[in-house]
Design goal:
about 120 residues, mainly alpha, Spore_III_AB, Stage III sporulation protein AB
């Protein structure tokens, strides 16, 4: 038998040191201290971390969807849902990497053109 979701979030937070473990720990704290369910605590945790994590709206929506579903289905259902969400986040990660590469080229080209403009002005 699996452990309750709140306990799993707390254990994850204790055993790791990352911003995700901080998030799961905070969600657990909110659920315990305020008596909220995990879904409400998840939403509140997202609002708190929104300022700290530079993510697009689409990524925030995916993270919100996770909070709405976690803990509401059986173990197999949650496992398949998490797998599906990991795939969706992988697609988002790939998009972000492509965007980074595109912007990196743009900024490099702008730097070169800016340097040329300064040289021309000084001549």
């Amino acid at each position: 038998m699996g452990r309750p979701l709140g306990e799993a979030l707390s254990q994850y937070a204790r055993n790791r040191t990352s911003s995700l473990s901080e998030f799961t720990g905070r969600v657990y704290e909110i659920s315990v201290n305020e008596g909220n369910g995990i879904d409400a605590a998840w939403r509140k945790g997202i609002e708190e971390f929104r300022k700290r994590w530079p993510m697009d709206q689409e990524e925030w929506n995916l993270l919100s969807q996770m909070g709405e579903v976690l803990g509401k289905t059986d173990r197999a259902g949650q496992s398949s849902f998490i797998k599906m969400m990991r795939e969706k986040f992988a697609v988002q990660e790939k998009k972000a990497e492509e965007d980074r590469i595109r912007k990196e080229k743009l900024y490099r080209d702008l730097g070169i053109l800016g340097g040329l403009a300064i040289v021309l002005v000084l001549i």
